[in-house]
Amino acid sequence: MKEEKVKRIYVDNAATTAMSKRAIKAALPYMQEVYGNPSSLHTVGQVAKEALEAARARIALRLNCDPREVYFTSGGSEADNQAIRSAAENGAKRGKKHIISTAFEHHAVLHTLKKLERDGFTVTYLPVGKAGIVKAEQVEDAIRPDTALVTVMFANNEIGTVQPIAEIGAVCKAKGVPFHTDAVQAVGHVPVDVKGMNIDMLSLSAHKFHGPKGVGALYCRRGLILNNLVEGGAQERGKRAGTENLPWIVAMAEALDEACESMDKVAKKERRLVNRLIDGLSKIPHSVLNGDRENRLPSIVNMCFEGIEGEGLLLHLDDRGICASSGSACTSGSLDPSHVLLSLGLPHEVAHGSLRLSLSEKTTDADVDVILKAVPEVVAYLRNMSPVWEALEKGEKPHLL
Ligand SMILES: *Cc1c(COP(=O)(O)O)cnc(C)c1O
Prior knowledge:
401 residues
């Protein structure tokens, strides 16, 4: 491995987090001592089965549901795929082939919906406005007699805005339409209560709250039919075949407990640091904070700086030891601007110059000081070299920000 000379400041926690010590420690016995298959009838298997069900109960407690409503998956993407496909299939059986979602969902949702559109479903993508928030009234107005599903993310992974999930849940309940939410960025970070918020299906992923990658869960309310995506054995009450990844499932339960126990304290700290970042970076001329300032996760800041390319900014920041992102890990490598930023109504040119900083409880004031010094310097440097910026400064083109 390359020798690390500079201290790394990791502010890309919306892409993934480091596993917590508690989660790692919790997983270890399930790789060594308790290695049984939970489906085996002998003692080694039954001990594993008990641990599996204990983890399920802990997660159910945190979501406020019955353990029988929690299905383990390989992560957020699989949970999103299963929830949406299942609701679509069951809707279609009753002649319902309309789905409501938003323009700025994660690709695990959007690409599943695109596929359903090719299979004859109609999808309404609600606009999220400049604030990056969809209103419950928009959902209500879009519901039709043939609506099979409403799927709206809990918190956006690029800009961090939190949606009025309880209000949307109430609307869907009143209209009798199943409601799924991709809560991958929310669980472990902000309070989530599936019963209190009238959520019918919810996706979560352990690696977004300091658990391991490759494990997640789907909550599906009892009474709602859930179809399986993976065929095979009878694991997860027949809804998700495959031998359960017990070490990771136990680690996920531990990480979620830890995240929920420290949620208020961590959120308070992150919110203070995020406010410092927003205030400091907003001083850069021709910049904008993306998404509503109030209704947001405590840990995510996303800003655009006119006249620069986000990619150049990231590389220069990486040279200075700052690991950030331009938005989504999924769009990096593609030249298209983020669909999330475009959904806010930002022009293409501006959407290209984005920076997402996503904090964790490990982020310090000293880290924020380094970022607040580095970003304005790199932005100024890149603008200095940019012909686009020169044209803007000469007044040949109007500033968009
Ligand atoms: C990370 C993420 C996913 C995908 O979860 P994986 O466990 O990586 O498959 C889905 N939705 C949102 C909002 C995410 O942030």
